[in-house]
Design brief:
Elements: H1 8-21, E1 30-37, E2 40-47, E3 59-69, E4 74-80, E5 86-88, H2 98-107
């Protein structure tokens, strides 16, 4: 099994961002999860079932994708449109510091991450 090229310290920082974004008292209704696929880290928002007719499955929506280039040691930020296509986020250049991109996701000045 190959190891992900994503630096452990950055992955920890992304997971901490997700944990801190949702207050503990609300985690029975909403939570954020992180999925790592190679050098891509995707943040998902999960919402509790709201209608019994649709079953007990939580709704899962992609929020943002952080993509790491091991060659350049830089992170790039992507947003997803309503058709499920990913686009490079134009308001943040690739950076060595993932915290900068997490701050941009948190601020969401263009409303593409949190709506």
């Amino acid at each position: 099994m190959s190891r992900s090229p994503v630096p452990d310290v950055d992955l920890h920082r992304i997971r901490r961002f997700c944990d801190e974004r949702v207050p503990a008292a609300a985690r029975d209704q909403v939570r954020l999860e992180v999925e790592v696929t190679g050098s891509k880290v995707t943040i998902y928002e999960l919402r509790a079932p709201w209608n019994p007719r649709y079953g007990p499955t939580w709704t899962k929506s992609a929020v943002a994708s952080l993509r790491y280039s091991p060659t350049h040691r830089r992170w790039a930020l992507f947003w997803i449109d309503h058709n499920g296509s990913w686009h490079r986020y134009p308001n943040a250049e690739p950076t060595a510091t993932v915290a900068e991109l997490l701050a941009e996701i948190g601020r969401d000045p263009t409303a593409v991450f949190w709506g």
